[in-house]
Amino acid sequence: MDRLLVLVRHGQSEWNLKNLFTGWRDPDLTEQGVTEARRAGALLAGEGISFDLAYTSALGRAQRTCKLVLEEMGLSGLKTIEDQALNERDYGDLSGLNKDDARAKFGEEQVHVWRRSYDVPPPGGESLRDTVARVLPYFVQEILPSVLRGEKTLVAAHGNSLRALVMVLEKLSPAGIMKRELATGAPIVYRLGPDATVIEKRDLIV
């Protein structure tokens, strides 16, 4: 049985391009982001990969990425489940701020702590630990059973919600996951054993 799980961070968004904290705000993809999503689909199709099921967040940039990936693979209309449990980390009061302006307002060291510590949230927002606590139960209860049943599964989501999954799948420490960067539109392909451990992992280079 092929227990396939593929994670894809959404393509570049308008706010990625403008260097803004995005979180639960809902900007669309840029033209580059659309290209990245389509390229991810072409890469996956070129690997002979197909899907039985897809999951995405409640945010448009991830949903559009998911749709574009599937279109490129000839899988338009595939059952896709949307849930805010897979939303990006909520940046709270930082949402919508330019990252350079945030450093000027709060101080570079403080912004670095909010962005790169595991358990210190920005005002009104979530830490990565909070994001893991939101994403992981959904993964364990909804996504993982699909994979273990042999349903080849795509998850199109966000840098930090996917970090939560990568942390668990790859058994990374809090310090290790904070150093892990996930490129936009770059698929990560996992094959799992019957006990849900990773037996193969590949990064498809965009």
TrEMBL record:
Coiled coil: none annotated. PROSITE patterns: PG_MUTASE. The record marks H158 as: Transition state stabilizer. Keywords: Gluconeogenesis, Glycolysis, Isomerase. HAMAP family: PGAM_GpmA (MF_01039). One of its GO terms (molecular function) is phosphoglycerate mutase activity. It holds the Pfam family His_Phos_1. Homodimer. It comes from Azorhizobium oxalatiphilum. Pathway: Carbohydrate degradation; glycolysis; pyruvate from D-glyceraldehyde 3-phosphate: step 3/5. This is 2,3-bisphosphoglycerate-dependent phosphoglycerate mutase. Substrate binds at residues 9-16, 22-23, 61, 88-91, 99, 115-116, 159-160. Belongs to the phosphoglycerate mutase family. BPG-dependent PGAM subfamily. The keyword Isomerase applies. The keyword Repeat does not apply. The active site is at H10, E88. One of its GO terms (biological process) is gluconeogenesis. Catalyzes the interconversion of 2-phosphoglycerate and 3-phosphoglycerate. InterPro entries: His_Pase_superF_clade-1, His_PPase_superfam, PG/BPGM_mutase_AS, Phosphogly_mut1. Its EC number is 5.4.2.11. It catalyses: (2R)-2-phosphoglycerate = (2R)-3-phosphoglycerate.
